[in-house]
Write a structure and sequence with these properties.
By secondary structure, the protein is α/β, with parallel strands linked by helices. It is built from 16 helices and twelve strands.
């Protein structure tokens, strides 16, 4: 196993982390026997970073891990979980939720504790509620060891959050299609310059970069001298960055786990050749051509006077158009942009076609017109039908 050092505490973490968001299921629930076997096998082969969160698997992921890490396995890993901002209404809620998580996980401390899924609105709200004081208090009490945050907002907000607190780590979406999206490469480099460890989520963009590939992309990979699966190509590209500490994979298949473990061993920082990087760039070029909107996520169009989160609308629209998990994309759009998490909407239907955004856009995108396409594609009846189920999953109170 390859290990990478956390700058601020010296921890040596496995470059491959086990994400417990997409565990194997049976009859709608976690297949506990199989999932336990998978996690323990990964730990036996050197994985020492396990990531979960309060809402994963309808609130059962933490409870499952509490059982799966018995028998000495808890002591072999660094455990990460997250404070869900959408469940926090008061400062006291933060302490209550953390105590419930500790009980579920059957542990007296969380090694790596994150504020979950931050963007500009949630960050401001959590600041106002006293989240930084909470983190200091929880660390002083020994309930958490290291504080961090996961992020799904615009680049300017990411830089602001990085500068607001002495974070040990952060978790960002990063892959060869997201170099300019969300935190992006600029955010990655900035966080690393501050000695913040970077945990990468969605290295395969929810499986899109490893699933059914467009024929042109299959041909590009087929012409390469190095033979790898599409998943291995995408993971190698992320691990090639020395700033990356851990790459999280939501593993639920024994063959995929074995492949990821093998890929990790050889994917050292700076190990990809010029030809290999050219192959990835060619593949990325095909995906970008398939994108509906050429948005780079720079955020110059923001803030929208009517509340639309324009970069996030376009990001999800592009994911949907490129063949990602369309049900998941609809559910995420509903939760993040149609008010499913916080009650505050930021979806495309709020656009009033004022044109302010188009004037500010460096890419000269006809933003109001494109937002109409987003709304008709992602904001329709099928998304509204999904919304109550997604809300039940993410917004329910964290209970013991």
């Amino acid at each position: 196993m390859q290990y990478r050092r956390v700058p601020r505490n010296g921890d040596q973490l496995s470059a491959l982390g086990f994400g417990a968001m997409r565990l194997p299921t049976k009859r709608g629930s976690i297949d506990e026997e199989r999932a336990t076997r998978q996690i323990r096998n990964a730990i036996d082969q050197g994985v020492n970073y396990i990531d979960t969160a309060a809402p994963y698997h309808g609130g059962e992921s933490e409870r499952f891990l509490g059982r799966a890490l018995q028998g000495g396995y808890r002591e072999k890993v660094k455990l990460a979980t997250k404070l869900p901002p959408w469940n926090v209404k008061t400062r006291e809620d933060m302490d209550r939720i953390l105590d419930i998580q500790l009980k579920k996980l059957q542990t007296d401390h969380i090694d790596y504790y994150l504020i979950h899924s931050l963007e500009a609105g949630q960050w401001k709200r959590m600041l106002d509620l006293g989240v930084l004081e909470f983190l200091e208090s929880a660390k002083a009490a020994g309930k958490i060891r290291n504080a961090g945050f996961s992020f799904h907002g615009d680049q300017r907000t990411f830089l602001e959050i990085v500068d607001a607190y002495p974070w040990v780590f952060c978790q960002i979406q990063y892959n060869f299609l997201d170099e300019t999206n969300q935190a992006g490469t600029e955010g990655l480099l900035y966080a690393a310059s501050k000695d913040i460890a970077i945990m990468v989520m969605e290295p395969l963009r929810g499986g899109m970069l490893a699933g059914k590939l467009p024929k042109e992309i299959e041909q590009i990979y087929g012409r390469a001298d190095v033979k790898r699966s599409a998943a291995a190509w995408a993971l190698c590209w992320v691990w090639n960055h020395p700033e990356v500490t851990v790459v999280l994979s939501g593993m639920n298949d024994e063959q995929h786990i074995a492949e990821n473990l093998a890929t990790c061993e050889d994917s050292l920082p700076g190990s990809m050749t010029t030809d290999e990087l050219a192959t990835i760039e060619a593949v990325a070029g095909v995906y970008r051509r398939l994108m509906k909107v050429g948005c780079t996520g720079c955020g110059y169009c923001m803030p929208c006077p009517f509340g639309v989160n324009i970069p996030q609308c376009f990001s999800m629209y592009n994911d949907y158009s490129m063949g990602g998990n369309r049900i998941m994309t609809r559910g995420t759009y509903g939760m993040m942009l149609m008010g499913g998490m916080t009650g505050t909407r930021a979806d495309a239907s709020l656009c009033q076609s004022c044109g302010k955004c188009s004037k500010a856009c460096p890419q000269k995108i006809a933003i109001p017109a494109e937002l109409k396409h987003v709304g008709s594609t992602l904001g329709g009846l099928r998304t509204k039908i999904l919304l109550p189920f997604a809300r039940m999953l993410f917004s329910s109170e964290v209970k013991e």
